[in-house]
Amino acid sequence: MTREYTKPAVVSCTHCGASNVFNQPYAYHAGFGDQGFLYSESGTCTLIWSAYDPAFEALVGKRNPWVLSRERQQILENALQPAPDGSRWLFSNPARCLTCGRPISGPMSQTIYYLEYEGSINVDRTGLKNVLKKTIESGAAPNGDPVGPVGDSGETEGPPALSI
Question: Which of 40, 51, 79, 146 could form a Cys-Cys staple with 136, CB 3.0–4.6 A?
């Protein structure tokens, strides 16, 4: 479902001055929406999911996406299918200007506000399982190891396989 607003959010690029127009009234606050978000490496596609998504919790435990340790961030990054442009979803990717490609908003590791580009993937209601690599969906990591939340000590805790 695409929402349309009479007054879209406009983010001006500080480098080239281009107006980046988003079909949303303002930059969304991931914390208020109980959501996580990542940008593609191109910085022009957004992945949005629920902080309470069962597949997300099975991978990294019951934690808010914006406060994950680097280890847990990498678990999620490695579990995701590529973005539509073939690049990776990474916690370090910023939102980028559609004209010059320079950053216009920080990644989730720097800001809780996100921009939803046209053609983005919002699995907040349908589930993160729809964008996980097939090996993850079946309960095995890409290297064949069981998938489960990683504890602070690096040990697997909880169920050994992802159950969706």
Answer: 79
The total number of structural domains in the chain stands at 1
Residue 20 domain-assigned?
A: yes
- DSSP per residue, the chain: -----SS-EEEE-TTT-PEEEESSSS-EETTTTTEEEEEETTSS-EEEEETT-HHHHHHH-S--GGG--HHHHHHHHHHBPPPTTS--EETTPPEE-TTT--EEE--TTT-SEE---TT-EE-TTT-GGGGB-HHHHTTB-TTSPBP--B-TTS-B-S-SS---
Q: Answer whether residue 92 is part of any domain.
A: yes
- In-domain check, residue 111: yes
pTM greater than 0.85 (yes/no)? no
Residue 150 pLDDT > 60: no
